[in-house]
Amino acid sequence: MKTEQPKKITSLYSPKEYTGYHIKIKVLLTCILIGFIMIVFRLFGLQVINGKTYQDLALNNRKQVIRTPSYRGEIYVDDGQTKITENVSSYSLYVFPKHFPSFQNKTKRKELFTKLKTQFDIDEITVLKALRKGRSNPYRPHLIQSDTAFSNIHYLAEHLSEFPGIIYLSTPKRYYHKGDVYSHITGYIRAISSRELANKSDLGYSSISVIGKLGIEAYYDLELRGKEGYKVQIIDTKNRVKDEFFPEAGKPEAGKNLILSIDSRIQDIVYQTMQGFPGGAVVTRPTTGEVLALYSYPSYDPNIFINKLKKAEFQKYIEAENNPFFNRVTQGEYPPSSVFKLILGLTATDVHSVNLDNYTQTCYGGLYVGPKFFKCEATHLQQNLYQAIANSCNVYFYHLGFDIGPQSIAKYAETYFNLGNITGIDLPYEKAGRIPDQKWKLENIGTFWWDGDTANFSIGQGYALVTIMQINTLTAAIANYGRAYKPHFLKAQYSLETGETFQEQPRELLNLPFSRSDISKVRRSMRYVVEWGTARRMENSRFSFAGKTGTAETFRGTEPHSWFTGFAPYNETPTDETIAVTVFVENAGHGGEVAAPFATAIIEGIFLYRNPLVVIKEKLQPWTSKQAKYQKWLNIRDEKRLPSNYFQ
Amino acid sequence: MNSPHRPFTYSATHSNTHSGQNKTDNENPKPKSIFKRLFTTIDLQLFLIVLTLSIIGIIFSYSSQIQIFETRINPYNKYIKQIFYLISGLVVMWLGSLISYKRLAEHSHLLYLLSVLLLIYTLIAGTAVNQSRRWISLGVLSIQPSEFVKIAMIIFIANYLDKIKNQLGNLKQLFILALMIAFPLFLIILQPDLGTAVVFLPVILMMIIMVDIKRRYLLAFAFLLVLTSTLCLLLIYSQLETAPLVLALLFKDSPVYLIWIGVFFLVISLFFFSINIRMQNLILERIAFYSFVLASAVALTLFTYYVLLRGYQKERLLVFLNPQDYKWDLGYNAIQSRVTIGSGGWFGKGLFNGTQSQLGFLPSKSTDFVFAVISEELGFIGASLILILFLLFLLRLVKMALSVKDYLGGLILIGILTLFFIQIFINIGMTIGLMPVTGLPLPFLSAGGSTLWSSLLAIGIAFNVYARRHVNN
After folding, report:
1. Cα A286 to the chain's mean position, in Å?
2. Which residues pair with B135 in a beta bridge?
3. Separation in Å, CA of B281 to nearest CA in chain A
4. Residue in A42, A44, A138 closest to B434 by CB
5. Residue B405: which of A13, A36, A62 has the nearest Cβ?
6. Segments making up each domain of chain A, as ranges
7. Beta carbons of A293 and A184 less than 8 angstroms apart
8. What is the pLDDT at residue A260?
């Protein structure tokens, strides 16, 4: 150091002269150092602190996850052999926006558009729409053509390099046998919408998933769809696959096949019966709660959703007079009308203020409640419970309703008969109906509850609303002496891979707090309905069944809704053969005139197919059957002349 | 007006100063061999650093070509070319160090003329790549004249500043200089090659700083630059959706407000100037001066934004401000570059194993984004080593600049030093997201003939100055 110092001093350029220059260079040097320190800090931040995130990003950059759709479980009817749905595979074309020529590359783009048009008949607009959709995620395939002809797929596979960004995937398609008959049960599937995807992405849905939209397809979507698989491809920017592997977690799992309790023949009978009459009908098995048939007219053909939705066809359904997509059995809310009298009758047996054993009322064709006259269908004169239910005498039930009180009726209807609550049937979007009370009326109508409301409520008019399914469950409960099971379609589900079968166990829904003798009184009155009551025109039926008609008043000028709910056969002890049938026809007429014959047709059809020998036996023994009929008539005549103090 | 801190003055006793140095030369009695004499100008330390960097550049140009998927191009084409460029570039460097820089400076007006002619020729007959004309095709090779113009301009400006060093108070001289600089810069911007033009501004600024210019002018110049660039950025930022409402209201769609602001300052300036003609008040003069600077900054901004800047250049700046919104189109480069560097981690993915670069996610991987490839394949350690090499390189240049004793040489060295530093900083800053994306190569590492040749030529000129630091001519 010391040797250098004199050198500088002896230099002609005195340090003074250098200072400005040197200081400026040193400032520059400081700038350089600061710049480099900035770079090093930034590099450290990128590579060391955030290195892991960027490594993941880089991995995602060259990793492409290709979804492989899983086998969607098929739906069988109760024999376990007949399919309602059929899986058909078809190929669809997708655009992969990341690898599609960008908008700067005009010539290549135009070329590709013309090629697509000539080869696959895909318009430029559809591709552009798909590309626009793909702007948010260019690594996802977006559908441009479904159901591409196989020859076209073959061509594409051979000329893949000529179509950058165009890929084909096989998509499972669903075909519905007798779609029209089962549509309200099966529902249909559609490609998942972006909103659904956003809501359900944690359930494993992806953009190529299909999802059940209605019916069993929607309710059991998770069981049916299984698990989508995926494979991972290592790709370069030109979408050439450099490597491909199938991770263990990406193995697709087949969906479970479902066996429904639907009896295809009963369903056919119900379907044929209901044709032309907007309404719903449901047949269940009271001992288990299994639904044997469910049909709502009008119905739709789910097969229109398979292929590209034809607008005209869909429009036809949309504009149809009675919404075909509306399942009247579970979603239709109607006034229960006289069917509600069954509830009132049963409730009366449990309410201590009413001693039903000697409870009679005299019907003079109506009743004044305050200033308003509430009429009855006829002048029934003195009526007991049997007669009142059989004749559907309003006056009797007005009195009964006043004696029980609206709170008690509502309480029983809600807690024991489950009205105002969904039945829990395995169909989506079920409605709950409504049981009104004072609070409800004050909140929704804005007026207080008055006696006229009680009168209306007692005969099932007014504000009470029920679904056909609810009425069916309570019918089943009566047929089964107080116990009803949750109505369900699913009988068993089995997985193809493990071969395991899961039998569904019936779950209790209703457990009526009435004694067996009380319920058998109501059962008996329901039998009288058919024998000589409001449904007496059905008395000549080959099979003995019991039921209750209902006539729901609607707006003036339209026919009333027609109800019939019943069970067959009318035995002391219900067996697995027993069915509960509920028929509802919109704006058709009196319950005894429309719904009851429909129900009879259904019941006769069912028992005839179950026991075809009945007809032959009839023919073989004409005299005995005639005799039996005569005997029956005699019985009816006796019962009609029952004294009013019958119970004593 | 003479400044007390004039750095260099030619001294009559100049030769005496180097007696010690000359002694060391004389201590070696043996006559130098021809070979040694030929290469006596070359500084070994700097040369070794440059050679190392260039070889690393070749390795990475090979790395970027190794798995190229385009079958129609010979995959090893580029790196063999790069080797050829290096060898020929070393010859260019040696040639650049041969003719004395003073001789070069004497004829710098010819260099200037040649540069301008070349640039005009490029604009007329250059080969267009991606809507810009930057290249002249010479049969096998194509050359980017703007790369060489930079060096010519440094020599020219150094010479000019050296000549006017005694009349620096004279605004007229500075104004002429500004015009002389602006013309070729304008030609370069017309190509359009904004990156090269922008690189030039700090170089000129630094060279002017080295001269003892009036501090006021320097301040005004720096103020003008900063204000213009800020206003331009604000204009661009106001186009963003997320821009503050005030900005959007002021600047979006129309420059009316800006024009009025400019007119306002111009009027103020003229007003005070006219008052001042009689009063000769210093404060009033200052006010007139600075409001004129403000007005000219506004005018320059409008000129830059509406005339000079092309749409894509504005978009690049926009992307720099908000890259995530342009993830898939305009911001793609910037984001991929960051991902590439970030995924390198501490030690990198190994040479030739970078996935981002090898699978083609990173664009321009052998040219503009070569630093990203290095960072990916060699990690933080490797990138730091490269940075250390660059730092050593710059420090060596600084040391050379400190040891040079004459004005002209010092200015040339400072120009070259600043040029290299700015290029390195902008390029690396661009890859790591500190700077907007500009098509600027990284010296010695980026593949390409013109950039390597011009860098080596600049090094040759540096050698030239350094070797002749004792020679009084």
Report:
1. 22
2. B127
3. 31
4. A42
5. A13
6. 4-49, 64-261, 269-294+330-622, 623-648
7. no
8. 92
Q: Is B452 within a domain?
A: yes
According to the model, what pLDDT value does residue B262 have?
86
Name the B residues in 330-359 with CB < 8 Å from any A CB: 336, 338-346, 355-356, 359
Q: How confident is the model at residue B70 (pLDDT cuts 50, 70, 90)?
A: very low
Chain A CB contacts of B7 below 8 Å: 17-18, 20-21
Residues 217-256 of B with CB under 8 A from A: none
Which residues 429-468 in chain A show a CB within 8 A of chain B? none
Q: Read off the pLDDT of residues B266-313 as tens digits, 9 standing for 90 and up.
A: 888 888 888 777 777 778 878 888 888 888 888 888 887 777 776 667
Query: Quick one: how far is CA A169 from the chain centroid?
Result: 29
- How far out from the chain centre does Cα B324 lie? 29
The residues in A 23-52 lying below 8 A from B, measured between CB atoms, are 24-25, 28-29, 31-32, 35-36, 38-40, 42-44, 46-48, 50-51
B361 interfaces chain A, CB cutoff of 8 Å: yes
> Which of B13, B342, B402 is closest, CB to CB, to A46?
B342
Average pLDDT over residues A258-282: 93
Q: What is the pLDDT of residues B342-386, one digit of tens each?
A: 888 888 888 777 777 776 677 777 788 889 989 988 999 999 999
Q: Is B409 on the interface with A (CB under 8 A)?
A: no
Closest partner residue to B14 (CB to CB) among A12, A35, A135 is A12
- Average pLDDT on B228-235 reads 82
* Side chain identity, residue B91: V
Q: Is the peptide bond before A298 cis (omega within 30 degrees of 0)?
A: yes
What CA–CA distances, in Å, run from B167 to B163, B172, B211, B278, B361? Answer: 9, 10, 11, 27, 55
* pLDDT confidence of residue A433: 92
CATH superfamily of A269-294+330-622: DD-peptidase/beta-lactamase superfamily (3.40.710.10)
- Domain annotation covers residue B6: no
pLDDT beyond 80 at A115? yes
Give per-residue pLDDT as tens, A310-366. 677 778 888 888 888 999 999 999 999 999 999 999 998 888 777 777 888 899 989
- The greatest distance separating any two alpha carbons of chain A, rounded to the nearest whole angstrom, comes to 151
Q: How much is the mean pLDDT over chain B?
A: 79
Whole-number percent of chain A with pLDDT over 70 = 89
Q: What is the mean pLDDT of residues B113-142?
A: 81
Q: Which residues of B touch A48 (CB under 8 A)?
A: 345-346, 380
Residues B312-349, buried b or exposed e (16+ Cβ, 10 A)? Answer: ebebbbbbbbebeebebebbbbbbbbbbbbbbbbeebb
Q: How many structural domains is chain B composed of?
A: 1
- The CATH number, out of the four listed (3.30.390.50, 3.90.1310.10, 3.30.980.10, 3.40.50.720), of the domain defined by the range A64-261: 3.90.1310.10
Query: In this structure, is residue B5 part of a structural domain?
Result: no
pLDDT for B31 equals: 64
Chain A hits for B9, CB-CB cut-off 8 Å, are 17
Is B144 a residue whose pLDDT tops 70?
A: yes
pLDDT at A195 over 70: yes
- Domain-located, residue B273: yes
> Strand A561-568 relative to strand A256-260: parallel, antiparallel, unpaired?
unpaired
Where helices occur in A384-467 by DSSP H, the ranges are 385-391, 394-404, 406-415, 438-444, 451-458
Does B39 contact A at CB distance below 8 Å?
no
pLDDT band at B340; cut points 50, 70, 90: confident
Chain B: nearest CA to A24, how far in angstroms? 7
Beta bridge partners of A484: A510
Instruction: Decide if pLDDT at A276 tops 60.
Output: yes
Domain around B152: 41-467
